[in-house]
Amino acid sequence: MQRVSMVKEYTSILGDTFKVHVITVKNGNKRGGSYRQIRAKEGMIERSHDRWFDHWYQKKLTTHHSLTRFDRWTNADDSIYIKARERMAKREGVEVALENYPTYEVVEHDSVWDFFDYIGYDHKNKKVSNTDSLLIIKERE
């Protein structure tokens, strides 16, 4: 069985540029099958969102800018994004559309474990500092 999963990675603190990681999840991977890979990916996303909301958004909002780096992305999100860019290009022009809806890089991975290696995430390390590495944090001026 083979399943495709996608993750969006924000690359700036403003959240205006991002990459899409396309992950092919297959059974029979030596580090864990499809169930284990999906659980690891979803756990990473949930831990980073919980840490961001509970600590960086609620407690450090006045002293730090912060953003979760990773979020889910689907084919439906992709088609909505492209249609919105096309509508804006018709209405406002191509330059404005590309400024508001820039093209994004697509990175393909053979498994969730390859994705974790690519982003430098240790899925076995549950420390707060490891979870904070999944966030974009910048001190306010």
Structure, briefly:
This protein is α+β, with helices and mostly antiparallel strands and 141 residues long. It has five helices and six strands; from the N terminus they run ββαββααβααβ.
Ordered list of secondary-structure elements with their pairings:
Elements: E1 2-10, E2 18-26, H1 34-57, E3 64-68, E4 70-73, H2 75-92, H3 94-100, E5 105-109, H4 112-119, H5 128-132, E6 135-139
Helix pairs in contact: 2-3
Shape: flat
* Percent of sequence in beta strands: 25-35%
Compute the number of strand runs: 6
| Major β-sheet profile | 4 strands, mixed
Strand arrangement, major sheet:
4-1-2-5
> What string, H for helix and E for strand, traces the elements in order?
EEHEEHHEHHE
Number of helices: 5
Number of domains: 1
Q: Any low-confidence stretches, pLDDT <50, length ≥5?
A: none
Structural class: alpha+beta
Task: Please state the oligomeric state of the protein chains shown.
Answer: single chain
Q: How much is the radius of gyration in Å?
A: 17 Å
Measured between the Cα atoms of the first and last residue, the distance is: 50 Å
How much is the average pLDDT? Answer: 85
Roughly what percent helix? 40-55%
